[in-house]
From TrEMBL:
It comes from Capronia coronata CBS 617.96. Transmembrane segments: none annotated. Gene3D superfamilies: CoaB-like (3.40.50.10300). Residues 177-311 form the DNA/pantothenate metabolism flavoprotein C-terminal domain. Belongs to the PPC synthetase family. Residues 1-26 are annotated as: Disordered. This is DNA/pantothenate metabolism flavoprotein C-terminal domain-containing protein. InterPro entries: CoaB-like_sf, DNA/pantothenate-metab_flavo_C. One of its GO terms (molecular function) is catalytic activity. One of its GO terms (biological process) is coenzyme A biosynthetic process.
Length: 365
């Protein structure tokens, strides 16, 4: 029997309804063609290649059809963009489904205000623009990896903006990936909105902030904006049961802010959706620790060693370890070492997953 949602409807029913009543993104058919070509290329040229769909960044919830305002969330796409690089290092081909203008693999090292690319450049005496001496080595490495991914058609970048765009894209990609069978991996790191305004209730034009802004004779007083949001149906069960290739591995993320809820919520998600792994993370420690929760009751913490933790403005280091429930469980926590460069936790997460994925494929064959 299919799992039921809180409202009693079977999961698949709600999902179908969502796709019938909300419009697909304009770019959907061109994205579908690109994805088909990408998968076909790897099926023909490297039939053993594993392919991962990485979802990344936040989703917007528009308040108007001709959108001026929208609700958004904090996700910059760091987890997704960084993980995509490590998946490429592990030999995967990567479909990177990301929020438009969020961080991208490779260019993330030189984008946005914290890593503004202009700070890496200089003007040479002869007037040429050059990369500053101290950044040459790292930039060469990044550039080589980027070229390798591009030249070998290993990275497909597909953008989305709204939560509805994201869900249409996810469904299409999962179905297009079906010929990959158990070589497909889903790594759902996007921060997907749980609430939205259905199309039939959405304002067409910009919501006016004053009574008479629309041209009437009102008082001109500003008014409250009360927004009624509906729950977005949970699509994970439909992904697992119908869209994704049979035998594929599905990994979702669970984000919490309260340490005492993290592990139990991750367990609940596994029970509800019957997928392979939930990676739990706390907002305030997500760059330094995550927990792998599997259906056999395992709670495995992965931590960046203290000496290798990069500084983070929003992070709270005292909370590291506070969400751990089953003390004494196995850790991947390489203590000690001299600080050279901050270690990215994705460099620990992704090889672990690649190993799990390989083992799983071997068990299935
Ligand atoms: O981008 P960064 O700043 O680096 O941050 C990374 C991150 C914290 C966003 C990332 O590590 C993370 O935790 N992403 C998932 C956050 C989240 O949306 O959790 P959730 O509890 O809302 O959803 C859990 C899972 O259900 C998700 O894998 C999602 O794909 C899935 N889901 C969510 C909503 C929905 N309607 N249907 C779903 O299937």
């Amino acid at each position: 029997m299919p799992p039921h949602q809180a409202n009693g409807l079977p999961a698949g029913h709600e999902a179908d309804d969502y796709f019938h009543t909300n419009p697909p993104p304009k770019a959907l058919s061109s994205h579908q063609s690109l994805a088909r070509e990408f998968i076909q290329y790897h099926l023909e040229n490297s039939p053993r290649r594993k392919v991962v769909l990485v979802t990344s960044g936040g989703t917007t919830v528009p308040l108007e059809n001709q959108t001026v305002r929208f609700i958004d969330n904090f996700s910059a796409g760091t987890r997704g963009a960084t993980s995509a690089e490590y998946f490429l290092q592990e030999g995967y081909a990567v479909i990177f489904l990301h929020r438009q203008f969020s961080l991208l693999p490779y260019s993330r090292h030189y984008s946005h205000s914290t890593n503004c690319f202009l700070d890496f450049m200089d003007e040479a005496e002869d007037g040429r623009v050059i990369v500053r001496k101290e950044y040459q080595d790292k930039m060469r490495r990044v550039l080589q990896q980027y070229h390798h991914a591009k030249d070998n058609r290993l990275l497909l970048l597909l953008p989305f903006t709204t939560v509805t765009d994201y869900l249409f894209e996810l469904r299409s990609l999962a179905v297009i990936m079906q010929p990959l069978g158990n070589r497909a991996l889903f790594y759902l790191a996007a921060a997907v909105s749980d609430f939205f305004i259905p199309r039939e209730r959405m304002e067409e034009h910009k919501i006016q902030s004053r009574d008479n802004d629309a041209g009437g004779q009102g008082s001109g007083a500003s008014r409250q904006l009360v927004v009624n949001l509906d729950p977005v149906p949970k699509f994970l069960s439909t992904l697992v049961q119908s869209w994704a290739p049979k035998g594929s591995m599905i990994v979702s993320f669970k984000l919490e802010t309260n340490p005492s809820l993290l592990v139990s919520k991750a367990e609940q998600a596994l029970k509800r959706y019957h997928h392979d792994l939930v990676i739990g993370n706390l907002l305030s420690t997500r760059k330094w620790e995550v927990v792998f929760v599997t259906s056999d009751g395992e709670e495995r913490w992965i931590r960046v060693p203290k000496a290798r933790r990069s500084k983070s403005i929003s992070g709270v280091e005292e909370l590291v370890g506070k969400a751990e429930r089953k003390h004494g469980m196995e850790h991947v926590d390489l203590e000690g070492g001299t600080v050279t460069e901050g270690m990215e936790i994705e460099s620990l997460i992704v090889p672990e997953l690649a190993l799990m994925h390989t083992k799983r494929m071997e068990q299935q064959s």
